[in-house]
Amino acid sequence: MVGLSFCDFAGTREEKAMMAEYRQKQWPRRFKNGSHLWSLALEKRKEGRCPLEPGEIGFILRAMGYTKETQIYVASGQVYGGNNRMAPLRNMFPNLVTKEDLASKEEIEHFKKHVTSLAALDFLVCLKSDVFVMTHGGNFAKLIIGFRRYMGRHRLKSIKPDKGLMSKFFGNPYMPWANFVEDVMITHQTRTGLPEATFPHYDLWENPLSHCMCRA
């Protein structure tokens, strides 16, 4: 998602060079010569079209009242920046696990034969979780929220952070923690996965209410 988003993220020169090479190879028409990406990335972040970073997710969850004892399951492949990028989230929530942590080597090897099988494992865990947090706007996360809504699991939280507003909050170094907590709570009172009324250009996978759900 980091590569596809064409957003800018902190990293070493080597990491940024690898990301630029990867983007140029995968999406040559969008990449061009890369000179336009910085201003584009800033605009996309303001509009809430960039994935949230692990540390940002940690702050949002702490503001919502989740304690450091909370178990966090990270549904992800290789993380850009590796362990260093995950460190802020792990420091706030030490009980951080992945499918590789929970499954034995023998169990996980069976699924490594197909990348989609690994994604399916993440999907099932997220589907059954007490709380699901959507950190990006990709189809994987949309399908999970939509499936939880459709199967009646909207009774469990599916948090969809307001990434644009969060970007504004995170960009204000003078914002007191108490104000941040209050604003996060108010902002996300209605962003917890309940079915929503649809509109002409809506995502069926994320919100199947109108055409796929019984209103009785």
Q: Your description of this structure?
A:
Belongs to the glycosyltransferase GT106 family. This is O-fucosyltransferase family protein. The structure is a single chain. By secondary structure, this protein is mostly helical. The chain folds into two domains: 2-46, no CATH class; 54-212, no CATH class. It is 52% helix and 5% strand. The chain is built from 13 helices and four strands. It has helices spanning 2-5, 13-26, 28-31, 37-46, 54-63, 82-92, 99-102, 105-111, 115-128, 139-150, 163-170, 177-187, 209-212, and strands spanning 72-73, 96-97, 131-133, 157-159. It has a two-stranded parallel sheet. The termini are far apart.
What brief labels describe this structure?
216 residues, mainly alpha, 2 domains, two-stranded parallel ribbon, 13 helices, 4 strands, globular, carbohydrate metabolism, GT106_glycosyltransferase, glycosyltransferase activity, transferase, GDP-Fuc_O-FucTrfase
